[in-house]
Each structure stands twice: as structure tokens, then as C-alpha cells.
Amino acid sequence: MSQSNEPINREQENTEKKLGEIPISVLDLSQVLEGHTAADAFRDSLDLAQHAEKWGYHRYWVAEHHNMPGVASSATSVVIGYLAAGTSTIRVGAGGIMLPNHAPLVIAEQFGTLESMYPGRIDLGLGRAPGSDRRTSLALRRDINSGEDFPQLLEELRNYFDTSKTSYHAPIRAVPGEGLNIPIWLLGSSDFSARLAGSLGLPFSFAGHFSPDYLDRALNVYRNTFTPSDTLDKPYVMLGVSVIAADTQERAEMLSTTMQQQVVALTRGRPGKIQPPADLSLQLDPLELTAVRKRMESSIVGDRETVERRLHELMARTQADELIVTSGIYDHNERLHSYEILADIAIPSGQSAL
Which residues are the signal sequence here (predicted)? Predict the structure, then answer.
């Protein structure tokens, strides 16, 4: 299935890729703030998507998580439909759907429906993790098999879209879905999906924002095992990165304490709603504070100059074909401003007012 409408098929010269020359996208979790509701989270996500579209971001993805009070995007395909209805040109998709949580036929029908409603704008990113804890996985009626059957589930899903594998006489068909050109991405935080994406000739999105230690290995595995396919003739890497930009370094670092609190809550096994910035030196003992800050080292936090410098360094290191950026900031207006600063840095065609 050709994906000629996607940048993953553009002509790529053997030259170094640089910031300002590649697409920049948004990864959102529809975060639920302390003192707010899921309804507020969805309104904020739509507002951010509309601003991202205006500023020239390429795509807007939401991710599937369950049993997390601070994440409202659990019914991911429903949220995608809401965001697509409120925008007009930006691509909207899943970053991602955790495929082992679902019957492949259901996902084919859901995304076939979305693509039928918003043709040429829907992406389907797929992961193999549960997106939650073991008990929640069981509540989703998922067999606990560490994603070992992911390749088989992926093949089943792709076959539902492929008319060469179905016909009017087939016992099971995805309607809508069959014959539709919905770009499929593999997502990963290790080298498992990197190897699978390479062998199938699919685009690969690596979660560099929370698994930086595996970044170099995963990208090398993907590129070294890549086999050209009808979908893609060259490797295409989208890299997830956490960026918090503000007018001053000090303000950006204060805003980043919201993400640090999320790390602490997850480490302690007590995830909650998204917390406002705080002085963590008053809440954590020195060892815990050091560990949290170590976990944040891969995040790009700072003023415009710092963010721009570190993004250039990241591009020089990874040669990513696209960056997808998450920004865990509590205040919605501050989060908008962070993405606006980033657009002004990295999106030449963006309409940033800065």
C-alpha cells in the first residue's frame, strides 16, 4: 500500500539532516490537571492542536494509557476523532494504540472509520506495551504474554486494510477499513519494534523522551535491518523528545518540576493528576531528588537559546527524519508558549507570532 501522501516517501539526499529541515510534530496525553477534569483536558488538547496546526506542526498524536488519573486519552480513537473534527489540515493519529489490548479487527474498523471521515489525515502508530499495570491489563481482557504475539497481531491488522488479502468472499472483512491507505507506524522504547519495523519496511517512532538509554541501539538496529517495501523505500525515524521552553532558563526549570513530580509519582506507584510546579527540594530527600533529575537529563529544558542548541545537538547525533515533541507543563498557556517558542526555532513555515 503506497503512502505517497506522507513525507516518509519524499526524496532524501545523502546529506545531513538539520533542524528546520524536518517535520516537527506534537505528542499529547490529554493531561488532566490537579483541580480540573477530563473534559477540561480534552478542551486543552483541542486548543493545542488548533494552535499547532496554525504554527506549522506536521502531526498531532495522542497516546493510549489506562488507569492513570492524569491521562485522559485512554479511548484513543475517540479522542482522535474529536481532534480531527476541530482541525482541518494537521495529521492526527495514535502515538500509539497498544495493539495487544485490542482485537485487530476492532482497530481496523475504528481507524477505517476515522480515515473515511477525515481522509488523508489519519495515522496509526502501534505499540506492544499494555500502557498500564498488570491488573489493568487483565481488566482489559489481555493475556499477559509480554507482547510476544505482537508480530502476529500486526500482520492480522495489516491484512484487514490490504485488498489483496481480502475479497467479497472472505469470511471476515473490516468495513470500513478495507482498501484504505492508513499509514502504520511501529512505536518502541527498545530494539524489538525497531527490528520488526526494519524487517517490514515500516516507519519507526522511538520513545526517546522516556527511554533514552536505548536510543542509539534502537536506531542502529532499525536502520541496519531495514528492508525496502511498498510502504517505504528508505528508513524513516521519528524521535520522541520532551521539550520545555520558556522565556528564561529559570522559568523553564521551574515548569519542569511538574514532570519531575510525575516521575516521582510513577516511581512510587502512585500516579495522580498533573501537579503545578513546586520546589521539590522541600518535598524529596537528596537521593530521590538526584535520581529524578538524572531521569530528566534527556529532556530539553531551557530558554530559546538552550533549547535550540540542544535540539541541534540531538539532530547531529541521531539524524532523525522527524521529531515528535511532548511538553508536560501544568499551565495550559505556558504549554502553548513552549510550543510556540519551539515552532519559532524549528518550523520555518510556522506562523509563530514571536
Answer: none
Boundary residue ending a domain (182, 199, 218): 182
Q: What DSSP string runs through 265-324?
A: HHHTT---SBPPP--GGGTS-HHHHHHHHHHTTTSEEESHHHHHHHHHHHHHHH--SEEE
Q: Where does residue 171 rank: exposed (0-12), middle (13-18), buried (19+ CB within 10 A)? A: exposed
Its pTM surpasses 0.85: yes
Domain containing residue 270: 236-346
User: Could you tell me the CA-to-CA distances from 29 to 71, 74, 87, 318 in Å, in that order?
Assistant: 6, 9, 18, 25
Shared-domain flag, residues 118 and 254: no
Other CB atoms within 10 A of residue 103 CB? 13
For the record, the C-alpha cell of 322 comes out as 522527524
Q: Is 184 helix (H, G, I), strand (E, B) or coil?
A: strand
Q: Residue 320's pLDDT is what?
A: 97
In eight-state DSSP terms, residue 166 is: -
Whether 221 maps to a domain, the answer reads no
CB 183 within 8 A of CB 123: yes
Q: What is the pLDDT, as a whole number, of residue 348?
A: 84
Range list of H helices, the chain:
38-55, 76-85, 104-117, 134-139, 150-161, 192-200, 215-225, 249-255, 257-267, 286-295, 304-318, 332-346
3-class DSSP assignment, residue 350: coil
Name which residue leads in pLDDT, 284 or 95. 95
Please check whether residue 261 is in contact with residue 278, taking contact to mean a CB–CB distance below 8 angstroms: yes
Same domain, 178 and 247: no
- Whether 41 and 72 have beta carbons less than 8 Å apart is answered as yes
Q: Is the pLDDT of residue 318 over 90?
A: yes
Q: What CATH number is attached to the domain comprising 58?
A: 3.20.20.30
Is pLDDT at 30 greater than 70 in this prediction?
Answer: yes
Same domain for 134 and 71? yes
Q: How many domains does the chain have?
A: 2
Domain boundary among 164, 182, 200: 182
Which of 98-102, 108-112, 320-324 is least confident? Answer: 98-102
